[in-house]
Write a structure and sequence with these properties.
It is a multi-pass membrane protein. The protein is mainly α. It has 18 helices and no strands.
């Protein structure tokens, strides 16, 4: 089982991200012996004996930019610490980011070599099974009418209102846990037709719950991923069927809103944004917008070196004194403010290299995937690339976020050395 140990490490980390928050909030503090940290250590030990550098892989072409980005983070923190201008609270973040990048280096290196059809089949099955954790917890919470966890952003942040987030600290993490399952269900229904009819309730119930998270970033990411799959794949009849199913889901939601539970959730939704307007309406508008403007301004003032790794948080806290919750810019604008061009260029090149792999494959190489599991993995990578794009733009904190590590590893598992060599040869003939 698992000839490629990177697959096992990937699944262990994915499981850890789904159960991390309740264990941390109930039994410990974030940053100390969390399941996700154990998963990182286990993954490194599992894959370390199999690490081998091959410059011909897609992995090598992209990971070098991420390593250069992290080097710029370290140097920035050290230099600004010496100058007495660093955000010392970000030292733990720096260490956490480093652990995640080391994990990705080891896992991605192993995954970028041959991944068997059996392993890809196992990944697909396990992602669907693990998706039951957020799905069932979300439905239980939906009918319960209040959060399962005694903590998290809703209680600590801008109000005590309720949204569906299952076993997660925040709603976007809940959506991120369901995203691979939503896309996989859609892909398998498209590929197998009526043979995968049992996945239709899985798909529609997941979308239903995601809409009641009230996470704009997550909802747009899911819709974006489904839209690109619908545009690129499927016959006209299939697209009509999917459209009908989505319409039925929307009708169910409208009916649910008229029930006692639905009215309660609607009131919670309105309460959320009313409270946000009162708290975040500072000077020129919404606080997240204002934080983005602050980061742009700091980048313009310090375009080369930035203001230091994590220091944008200090600037935001200083300038938004009227906002009762300190925070980061929730977007990749924070990278530009903190690290300037020195750190932003390799960061952007890392993501561009990953997106190039996927969209170049869509344009030229997808027709060469002969087995259905490779095709499924490729399409999953395509949909997740759109989902992660919305996270990068509107909810990026650090590279240590689980979704920003899991998605590249799935790309590397899809495009291994064997594929790379074959695709390059065919590309030269083309």
């Amino acid at each position: 089982m698992f000839p490629n140990k990177g697959i096992l490490a990937l699944l262990i980390y994915h499981l850890a991200t789904l159960i991390n928050d309740p264990i941390v909030l109930y039994y410990g503090e974030e940053g100390f012996a969390t399941p996700r940290q154990f998963a990182i250590i286990i993954g490194i030990f599992l894959t370390a004996p199999h690490v081998k550098i091959d410059r011909n892989t897609f992995f090598y072409r992209s990971i070098k930019w991420l390593l250069l980005f992290y080097l710029s983070c370290i140097l920035s923190f050290l230099v600004f610490s010496i100058l007495g201008k660093a955000n010392d609270n970000y030292l733990l973040t720096l260490i956490t980011d480093g652990a995640n990048i080391i994990w990705l280096f080891f896992i991605g290196n192993v995954l970028s070599r041959e991944v068997t059809t059996s392993d890809k089949k196992t990944v697909i099955l396990c992602i669907l099974l693990l998706g039951l954790i957020p799905l069932l917890s979300g439905w239980y919470e939906f009918f319960l009418g209040h959060s399962l966890m005694s903590g998290g952003f809703a209680e600590k942040g801008i109000g005590s209102f309720f949204w569906v987030r299952g076993f997660h600290n925040d709603k976007i993490d809940f959506v991120s846990g369901l995203a691979p399952c939503v896309f996989l269900s859609y892909i398998l229904i498209f590929q197998n037709g009526l043979k995968s009819w049992y996945l239709i309730p899985y798909l529609l119930s997941s979308i239903f719950l995601i809409l009641f998270t009230f996470s704009i970033t997550g909802i747009l990411g899911i819709l974006g991923g489904l839209l690109i799959l619908a545009l690129y794949y499927g016959t006209f009849r299939f697209k009509i069927i999917i459209a009908i199913l989505l319409i039925l889901t929307c009708m169910t939601i409208f009916i649910a809103i008229e029930t006692e539970r639905g009215k309660f959730l609607t009131d919670q939704y309105l309460l959320k944004y009313q409270r946000q307007v009162k708290i975040e309406n500072i000077a020129s508008g919404n606080a997240r917008y204002v934080m983005g403007i602050i980061c742009i301004r700091e980048f313009i003032n310090n375009p080369i070196w930035g203001i230091g790794f994590g220091s944008h948080v200090l600037v935001i806290k200083e300038q938004l004194r009227g906002w009762n919750v300190g925070g980061n810019a929730h977007s990749i604008l924070s990278v530009a403010a903190d690290l300037g061009l020195i750190g932003s260029i390799p960061f952007v090149l890392f993501w561009m290299s990953l997106y190039r792999i996927v969209f170049l494959a869509k344009k030229k190489y997808s027709k060469y995937f002969h087995d259905q599991y490779s095709t499924t993995m490729f399409r999953l990578s395509l949909a997740l690339s759109i989902f992660v794009l919305f996270n990068l733009l509107f909810y990026f904190h650090t590279i240590g976020n689980a979704i920003f590590i899991l998605w590249p590893s799935i790309v590397y598992a899809t495009f291994n050395v064997k594929d790379c060599i074959q695709l390059n040869r065919r590309n030269r003939k083309i």
